[in-house]
Amino acid sequence: MTISKSRPPQGSYDENFDPRPKIVTVGVSLVTVEEHTFIQDGRAVTCPVDDDITYISLPREIVHLPCGGASYDIIADLLEQEGYLRKHWRISYVWECIPEGQHPF
Questions:
Q1: How many structural domains compose the chain?
Q2: DSSP of 9-44, one letter per residue?
Q3: Which pTM does this prediction carry?
Q4: Which of 2, 21, 37, 89 is the most buried (most CB within 10 A)?
Q5: Using CB atoms within 10 A of its CB, is residue 35 exposed (0-12), middle (13-18) or buried (19+)?
Q6: Backbone phi, then psi, for 82, in 5-degree steps?
């Protein structure tokens, strides 16, 4: 007969079941809310005026939600404290930085 521990609720961190670090670093691609529109080949093309990439360390639960994505709202709040105001910037995408030598491929 085998007795096993019950697994923690999905989305919570338990180092007995998940040896990955509690804090992860993510890259965040930001684009300006202000956009520039120009005509190319007879069509209007709209693109952000500027973009930026920044890195921030976060608890794993913010980056790996049960739905499989990251919480852009919480990340935006933390970036706003760092000086990236929401009225000027919006998040384009987020990715987790994997330390060299730990890549699964």
A1: 1
A2: PTT---TTT--S-SEEEEEEEEEES-EEEEEETTEE
A3: 0.69
A4: 89
A5: exposed
A6: -85, -5
- Residues 55, 25 contacting (CB under 8 angstroms): yes
Range of 55's domain? 23-96
Separation CA 55–CA 23 (nearest Å): 13
Domain assignment present for 4: no
Residue 66 belongs to some domain of the structure:
yes
Token pair for 30? 């930001």
How many Cβ atoms from other residues are within 10 Å of residue 91's Cβ? 17
Could you tell me which of 61, 83, 92, 87 has the C-alpha nearest to residue 74? Answer: 61
